[in-house]
Specification:
two-stranded parallel ribbon; 11 strands; binds NADP nicotinamide-adenine-dinucleotide phosphate
Length: 213
């Protein structure tokens, strides 16, 4: 399968690209800037520039031929102006570009509580609202979609154990475990056209996703 990962230089996106390549997928690693390509030097992936705030036609070009797009982007700055530019407007642009490029499947890394965003401080609310709007755009699109809503991300090791469900109590989860869940989504048809929370838990990824049904 040909998969393009947006945000492949990021702390979660990198591991998504790495796991996909290890499974034998043809991976295009989307970068905001060519300058970040060095991060990917040890991975068997094809770096492509895919800045969600740049010309949308460049994104269409980057997506052409991909069966799947996975978005793991996040604004470099938590201020609302930056979050709205990347996590809201940029994400929506990427969704529309994927439709235009004839992509079939789109997996979006969102955030727990993006579907009930009126909470937290000013910065948290703006992130959740941006995620909610882009998640809604994805659900309304012609793409087969999955929205993965992780709890607070941590940089610990992979545990291989998670809890997933439509809605969960607030929790934490490692970026490595989120990457494994995102890659697992590709092999589990029950994840099509649905969104779910993910936090650390007791279940291996495959059975956890299969239990979503
Ligand atoms: N932090 C949390 O606790 C938390 C909780 C739930 C969900 N999330 C979400 O989980 C996802 C992954 O988070 P993370 O902390 O692993 O991400 P991260 O390390 O901050 O990486 C973000 C990625 O997005 C890329 N990016 C930024 N602006 C871009 C643009 N204009 N066009 C294309 N790519 C762009 C970055 O590129 P550069 O490397 O060039 O900067 C980087 O690759 C994000 O969507 C985040 O919102 C985070």
């Amino acid at each position: 399968m040909q998969v393009t990962v947006l945000g492949a230089s990021g702390r979660t996106g990198f591991h998504i690209a790495r796991l996909l390549a290890a499974k034998g997928h043809a991976v295009r690693a989307g970068l905001r800037s060519r300058q970040r390509a060095e991060v990917l030097r040890d991975l068997d992936v094809e770096p492509v520039v895919a800045d969600v705030t740049a010309d949308p036609e460049d994104l269409v070009e980057a997506f052409l031929g991909s069966d799947v797009v996975i978005a793991a982007i996040g604004a470099p700055d938590p201020e609302p102006a930056s979050v709205n530019l990347v996590d809201r407007d940029g994400s929506v642009t990427a969704i529309h570009a994927a439709e235009k490029a004839g992509v079939a499947r789109y997996i979006q890394v969102s955030a727990q509580f993006a579907d009930s965003p009126d909470q937290g401080d000013r910065l948290v609310r703006s992130i959740l609202l941006a995620k909610q709007l882009s998640d809604l755009a994805l659900q309304k699109s012609a793409l087969t979609w999955t929205i993965v809503r992780p709890g607070t991300l941590t940089d610990g090791p992979a545990t291989g154990r998670v809890k997933v469900a439509g809605h969960l109590e607030p929790g934490r989860v490692t970026r490595l475990d989120v990457a494994a869940v995102v890659v697992g989504v590709l092999g589990e048809p029950l994840t099509e056209n649905r969104g779910f929370d993910v936090v650390s838990g007791d279940f291996p990824v495959g059975p956890a996703l299969a239990a979503l049904g």
